[in-house]
Amino acid sequence: MAISGLHHIVLFCADTERSRDFYKALGFAYLRGYERMHWFASGSAAGDAELMLHPADPGQKAGLPVIHFATPDVDALFTQALAAGLQPLDHQNPGTPLTGPVLRPWGDREFELVDPDGQWLAFTQSG
Questions:
Q1: 5-13 and 50-55: which strand pairing?
Q2: Interior angle at CA 97, CA 95 and CA 98, nearest 5
Q3: CA distance 114 to 102
Q4: Which of 22, 32, 105, 110 could form a disulfide with 124 if both were Cys (CB 3.0 to 4.6 A apart)?
Q5: What is the pLDDT of residues 26-71, one digit of tens each?
Q6: What is the separation of C-alpha 94 from the centre of its chain, rounded to a whole number of angstroms?
Q7: From CA 88, how far away is CA 70, in angstroms rounded?
């Protein structure tokens, strides 16, 4: 199976510190932070998907999500996407063709796709 579950959902926020306080007040368990990004547990079991708060870029509409799906083999899924004629992307390097999944500074290996309706999806290596 290529997709093993939900890895995390990214919410783009105008003020991640204010949003962090909001989710803490709701009882979400804070996991970690990195350069104004914040991660929360979305459940109580190890391996549950996470909620990530990400600063919205200037001019970007806050509130649009990116859904990250977990995959046990991100390289195989990347190859499958290419074979299907899809164009993997990297939001950090727009317009640059990918030759493989990217390694993020916080440790995730992933690639992204945009579906026919403009939904942004990411596929992240899991366990």
A1: parallel
A2: 130
A3: 16
A4: 110
A5: 778 899 999 999 999 876 666 678 888 999 888 777 666 788 888 8
A6: 16
A7: 16
Ordered domains of the chain (ranges, CATH): 9-125 (3.10.180.10)
- Say if residues 68 and 5 touch (Cβ distance below 8 Å): no
Tokens 């990530």 correspond to: 52
Interatomic CA distance for residues 127 and 124, integer angstroms: 10
Signed CA dihedral, 25, 22, 92, 73: sign only: positive
> What stretch of H or E contains 74?
helix 74-83
Contacts of 78 (CB under 8 A, 6+ apart): 88, 98, 100, 101, 111, 123
Portion of the chain with pLDDT greater than 90, in percent: 32
If we measure between CA atoms, which residue out of 54, 48, 50 comes closest to residue 40?
50
Tokens (6 digits) for 11 = 């919410």
